[in-house]
Design brief:
The chain is mainly alpha-helical. The protein is built from six helices and no strands. The protein has helices at about 5-15, 20-35, 45-55, 55-60, 70-80, 95-100. The longest helix has 14 residues, at about 20-35. It starts with a helix and ends with a helix.
Length: about 100
């Protein structure tokens, strides 16, 4: 399965904004998604925002990335502009329950 546009965008931005190389950036984002129970091929923009706010900062801190909180905040703000391939179908169970819940 191909990775989502959201995953690709976050990895590319992380590589540009930090000292991590391509492999390190992608691996770090993959590990963060795994901790959240998500997959790179299906992660949505909204799910990625949560990972960027809750999981990725500690992963970057453990890798010695300076100003990791600021990097994650900038990524969370910028990821909204990404058109995700993995946005759920309006008929998917997740979307139906989301609408029912308000």
């Amino acid at each position: 399965m191909a990775d989502s546009a959201t995953f690709e965008w976050v990895c590319n931005e992380l590589e540009q904004r930090t000292s991590l190389d391509r492999l390190e950036a992608r691996g770090t984002v993959r590990l963060s998604l795994k901790q959240a129970g998500l997959e790179p091929g299906t992660v949505t923009t909204e799910q990625m925002k949560v990972v960027l706010e809750k999981v990725l900062p500690s992963e970057l801190d453990s890798r010695g990335v300076e100003e990791h909180a600021a990097v994650c905040a900038a990524l969370a703000q910028g990821v909204e502009s990404v058109a995700s391939d993995a946005e759920p179908s309006p008929d998917s169970p997740d979307e139906v329950f989301r609408r029912l819940g308000g």
